[in-house]
């Protein structure tokens, strides 16, 4: 269903503002173990024989690309669900040169999430006076591919509290 | 401009959905050193003699209460702007018992923020299958009081990607 | 911890972005008949003796002022719930001179709304290339005063569909 | 003004929550005369010889289908930009039977919109106690096809103003 391609396979989706879909970048080892869960014994995360294992498993760790061409890497999630990573945006509301920026976030670890966890994270932009928060859920779609569905808010710095009303888009 | 009150003075504000104001809980030492910057020598953060120092300084670290009665404590901010803390909400969209929940976030540290930094954080709810992201800015208002202006998105878990469209409020 | 002040002082409060509260402008006849519903026989809208009349009744028609100082007048609501009016904003994201602008909207007329109807409307700005949509509910608060709770989206014109992602705040 | 078209060509797009793309239902004459403006003399709206005519022209009037499968018909726009129509949603947050519902809106008519106007409208749901507002822009995409890019807020009725904070998604 999902072949492990050694190079990047990137699909861009049309989407509305403030809503984003991100697809996992499928490279060798990454796809094998997880995406679509057809990998036999290597399928650590999703294919338990026990009934309490969910057949679906979406794992935030990895590299993601969204419909605007932005790239995100989530490096690890700790036992409490806290995670870090980096975000390389393809678009900007400023004229500054884009730089890779760090992100800090947190995901739900409860079994009630049934392998499709909700999460949120903050990107601290290194080339502008803004931050963006994303929140969403990691899904396994009908084709067995992992996909993130997120919404975001971009907060710009304003000099005066009187301008607060227009600082978020 | 701002007197350091030894006890708490907490005002609740009416506000619209998705926009929140939080006021800092002002106790002895906390207000002295920082709020309004009238504290003389103790005014570590804001009162440099050099022109490049801003007269305003809003510090995220501390305890905050918002207009709905929710309490938040931010314990520390590291050199990169990452911070942690806890959130005790006064309202919930579920019928579960409310529990204090951890938060992970990040703030801008650049001098261009002029002492009124933008920030974002994620609350990982310990009593529901949801997360909330907040983003906003820490302001010093006309009375010299520190105030947070934030917006939030609450993401609920859904079983099926088909219901993603209604999972965020 | 919080000292009780003997008299209420109710003014307009600063509030977070995207959420707005509007209070009805209380002038002679306007307040008499409706606000707080203490007007005796004149209390046409709220004080029926029949059990099927709700004790609460918030009427969109009238003049409203919100926390940013903007003024809105809703002139009439037809049998289907469609309404028109005008909006005089106190704030703008442009440098153009502010002009009063028309609005078009619609409210729920069902008895299930129990006198506190939900509604939405569009403001077609006469001094900028933008529109704003508001949606909210007309409430009677604990003091018997009519109050609108709304959220809004401001849509700016962009030249190219590639910039759509940043056109809404 | 818009006649029933013999053949529907409907494309569904993946999209994030709160952001929607809608494609115009493209049939014979409809596409010929307007979309992409390749239709020669029939090209009433877009192909003036005068320089002040924009080469792009997106017309709200017509039938639209979005990525969730919802259908919308905008019947006419008056001289001030006010318009009406109907909305047949494919998804609902309630368990009620879906019914076609009326919409009221307004669009920018200024030449500065360059044929790609911004607009907003309110849908007054006939099967639930809610309203939805949409705002967006009508674009001509790179293939010359008319497309709407919108964002929305869904407002539910709540019994008590204390629950206002969670009434909008």
TrEMBL record, chains A, B, C, D:
GO cellular component terms listed in the entry, alphabetical order: extracellular region
InterPro entries listed in its UniProt record: Avidin, Avidin-like_sf, Avidin/str, Avidin/Streptavidin-rel
Cleaved signal peptide residues: 1-22
Compartments where found: Secreted
Disulfide bridges in this chain: 58-138
Matching Pfam families: Avidin
Gene Ontology terms, MF aspect: biotin binding
Keywords recorded for this protein, A-Z: Biotin, Disulfide bond, Glycoprotein, Secreted, Signal
TM region positions: none
Major subcellular location class: secreted
Subunit details: Homotetramer.
Recorded family membership: Belongs to the avidin/streptavidin family.
Function: Forms a strong non-covalent specific complex with biotin.
PANTHER family assigned: AVID PROTEIN-RELATED (PTHR34399:SF3), AVIDIN-RELATED (PTHR34399)
The protein's name in its UniProt record: Avidin
């Amino acid at each position: 269903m999902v072949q492990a391609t050694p190079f990047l396979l990137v699909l861009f989706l049309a989407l509305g503002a403030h809503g984003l879909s991100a697809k996992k970048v499928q490279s060798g080892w990454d796809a094998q173990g997880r995406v679509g869960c057809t990998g036999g014994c290597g399928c650590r995360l999703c294919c338990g024989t026990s009934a309490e294992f969910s057949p679906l498993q979406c794992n935030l760790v990895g590299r993601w690309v969204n419909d605007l061409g932005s790239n995100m890497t989530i490096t690890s999630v700790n036992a409490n669900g806290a995670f870090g990573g980096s975000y390389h945006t393809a678009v900007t509301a400023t004229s500054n040169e884009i730089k890779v920026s760090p992100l800090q976030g947190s995901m739900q670890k409860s079994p009630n999430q049934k392998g499709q966890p909700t999460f949120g994270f903050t990107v601290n932009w290194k080339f502008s006076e803004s931050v963006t928060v994303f929140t969403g859920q990691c899904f396994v779609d009908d084709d067995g591919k992992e996909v993130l569905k997120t919404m975001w808010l971009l907060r710009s710095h304003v000099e005066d509290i009187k301008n607060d009303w227009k600082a978020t888009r």
